Amino acid sequence: MADLNEIFLGETGPTDVLAFPDEKQAEIYLSVEEARRRGDVRLEVARLALHGLLHLCGHEHGRAMSEKEEGFLLCWN
Fold first, then answer.
1. Can you give the pTM of this predicted structure?
2. In b/e form, how buried is each residue of 15-35, taking b as 16+ CB within 10 angstroms?
3. Looking at residue 62, what DSSP letter applies?
4. Residue ranges of the domains in the chain?
5. Residue 37: what pLDDT?
6. For residues 34 and 51, what is the distance between their CA atoms, to the nearest angstrom?
7. DSSP secondary structure of 40-52
8. For the CA atoms of 39, 42, 44, 48, what is the dihedral angle to 10 degrees?
9. What pLDDT was estimated at residue 23?
């Protein structure tokens, strides 16, 4: 994840999730290590995947995005 983060975003160090939109095939990369570190791996992998999906749908970080994540996760869990 650190390599992808540096190559594509110019950021140093690892990140938890990266999302790359594309007309033919979008891609989401997530850090299972980060999910494990946070606790419940199943829930955290779902949270990271959802976070990446929301970015692919055009959402930016902020309160509205966090509320969408929590709403979806409440329904899923």
1. 0.87
2. bbbbbeeeeeeeebbbbeebb
3. S
4. 2-76
5. 95
6. 14
7. -HHHHHHHHHHHH
8. 160
9. 86
Give CA–CA dist 45/25, Å, rounded: 20
List pLDDT tens digits, range 17-56: 999 999 899 999 999 999 999 999 999 999 999 999 999 9
As a whole number of angstroms, the distance between CA 31 and CA 52 comes to 11
Q: Which residues contact 67 (CB under 8 A, 6 or more apart)?
A: none
Rounded Cα distance, 75 and 60, in Å: 22
The CATH H-level (homologous superfamily) assignment of domain 2-76 is Metalloproteases ("zincins"), catalytic domain (3.40.390.30)
pLDDT tier at 77, thresholds 50, 70, 90: low
